[in-house]
Design a protein that fits this description.
Layout: E1 24-25, E2 31-33, E3 36-37, H1 38-45, E4 49-53, H2 54-71, E5 76-80, H3 87-95, E6 99-102, H4 105-113, E7 121-123, H5 130-139, E8 143-146, H6 149-162, E9 166-171, H7 197-208, E10 213-219, H8 230-239, E11 247-249, H9 268-283, E12 288-291, H10 295-298, E13 302-314, E14 316-321, H11 330-334, E15 341-342, E16 355-361, E17 370-378, E18 385-389, E19 410-414, E20 417-422, H12 427-430
Parallel strand pairs: 4-19, 5-6, 5-12, 6-7, 7-8, 8-9, 9-10, 10-11, 11-12, 14-16
Antiparallel strand pairs: 1-2, 2-3, 4-13, 13-14, 13-18, 15-18, 16-17, 19-20
Helix pairs in contact: 2-9, 5-6, 8-9
Bound molecules: pyridoxal-5'-phosphate.
């Protein structure tokens, strides 16, 4: 169980749920992350930079493992590594004893590099290539989550050629759409992911007929940033018509709180108990329940630091920073909302008289490159270091080099020490693939 937030010295209680565990302010009102001063981190490593509080990541992984184990001794937690595919993150989560979901050959290579045993890795993807399937089979991957009939053709041929047996799950689109942004809703009847129910029944028969395939069970992932538990029950009821299997992988999707006024998700414990009970009620005891958290494991562990490059007024105030859609695409893809603060003048409970309402924008040549609209910042000026919390999921993962922007480093902080686990990309790196 996650301890109630560690004593946050002077950190406004409104901010506590959106900053990494253990975040404090020092007596000057400056942000301290994992025992490191945010302003000093910016000076030492430059900005933009992702700062990961390692203890937050570990505590959350332990909370997931304990919650699912308490709900069912056979339950398994696998890290949906697309959320933060960084070798050091894979390493921490492998050390914490969870499994790993990969969505490509590249993520599989990264998971292996991070120390995951192939037997605890699951391969996903709606367009797995022959090379990716071969890599997974030859690596001895724990399970392949089959998405479509063409993949079954490819997989059964590759297994026959090798004379190997492979455990698989079937990805099913149960026809359930949770209340989330359409771009991160994946379980509805018309999704690109998996088989709809009639096709899934056909896939079950095909896979059960193949001697090289061990069909273990059903997988669904209905979407991301989900704040209510009922849709998982609806999805399970829908897939129950496919038969009775030893394994039910209920995907990930548990949401996180991104803003001080944003909705609060169910706790990890409530989520684990609810998912396990739903399986038991429908299918009886003894099933293996698998969960695949991405965002809920990694999002809150991380903040992004930026430096203000300009402050101007064009009708409204615009504060421009040295990053943007190259390090955080979520506001542009899903209208995702974030908050932002000046690390040396963090917000207090009573908003200060010199607070300014501003749009915080990135440096890229797109009008949509706005990180936070209507942010309240304390007297922002050029050179200030700003911090956006809750950027540990789908931030580094979707980083890109638009406008020739080298991608930011990833810095781990723990007990007052900071270490670079991914260095900043250089301009030379931008040409590294030129032939
Ligand atoms: C198959 C699968 N499992 C798990 C996840 C993780 O979702 P979340 O980060 O919302 O927990 C995703 C995210 O897209 C997914 O596609």
């Amino acid at each position: 169980m996650i301890p109630a937030a560690m004593p946050a010295v002077h950190l406004d209680p409104r901010l506590t749920p959106i900053y990494p565990l253990g975040t404090e302010l020092d007596e000057r009102g400056r942000l301290q992350l994992g025992g490191c001063d945010a302003l000093e981190l910016a000076a030492e490593f430059g900005t933009p930079a992702y700062v990961v509080v390692e203890q937050d990541l570990r505590t959350r992984a332990q909370a997931f493992v304990e919650a699912f184990r308490a709900a069912s001794p056979t339950a398994q937690v696998v890290f949906a590594s697309k959320a933060f595919p960084c070798t050091a993150v894979y390493r921490v989560l492998a050390e914490e004893g969870i499994g790993c979901d990969v969505a490509s050959g590249g993520e599989l290579a990264s998971a292996l590099r991070g120390g995951f045993d192939p037997a605890v890795i699951h391969l996903h993807g709606n367009a797995k290539s022959e090379e990716e399937l071969s890599f997974a089979i030859d690596t001895g991957i724990g399970a392949i989550v089959v998405d479509n009939h063409d993949e079954i053709d490819r997989l059964t041929r590759l297994l026959a050629e090798r004379g190997r047996r492979q455990a698989v799950l079937i990805r099913v689109a149960p026809g359930v759409s949770p209340d989330t942004h359409p771009s991160i809703s994946t379980g509805g009847p018309n999704t690109k992911f998996g088989f709809n129910l009639p096709e899934a029944a056909h896939a079950v028969r095909r896979l059960q007929a193949d001697p090289n395939v061990e069909l273990r069970g059903i997988h669904f992932h209905i979407g991301s940033q989900i704040m209510e538990l009922a849709p998982f029950g609806a999805a399970l009821r829908a897939v129950s018509e496919l038969g009775d299997f030893p394994v039910y992988n209920l995907g990930g999707g548990l949401g996180v709180q991104y803003t001080t006024d944003g909705p609060e998700p169910p706790s990890i414990e409530e989520y684990a108990i609810a998912k396990v009970r739903m399986v038991e009620e429908l299918f009886g005891p003894g099933k293996t329940v698998i969960d695949e958290p991405g965002r809920a494991l990694t999002a809150r562990s991380t903040v992004t630091l930026y430096t203000v490059q300009s402050v101007k007024q064009n009708v409204v105030n615009w504060v421009a920073v040295d990053g943007g859609m190259s390090d955080n695409l979520r506001p542009m893809l899903y209208d995702a909302r974030y908050e932002i603060d000046v690390v040396s003048r963090m917000r207090t409970r009573e908003d200060a008289p010199d607070d300014v309402l501003a749009h915080v924008t990135g440096k890229h040549c797109e009008s949509g490159d706005v990180l936070v609209r209507d942010a309240r910042l304390n007297a922002p000026r050029v050179g200030d270091v700003l911090v956006t919390p809750v950027t540990g999921a789908y931030g580094h993962a979707m980083a890109n080099t638009y406008n020739g922007s080298p991608r930011p480093p990833v810095i781990f902080v723990k007990d007052g020490d900071a270490r670079v686990v991914v260095r900043r990309e250089t301009r030379e790196d931008l040409f590294s693939r030129d032939v």
